[in-house]
Amino acid sequence: MYKHRLRVALKYYEELTSGSEGGISPDEAQKELERLRIQIGFFQHERLIHLIVTVLFGLATVITVPAYLAIQELALLVLGALFIVLLVPYIIHYFHLENGVQQLYLYHNELELLANPGYKKIY
Question: What is the rounded CA–CA span in Å between residue 78 and residue 83?
Answer without folding.
Answer: 9
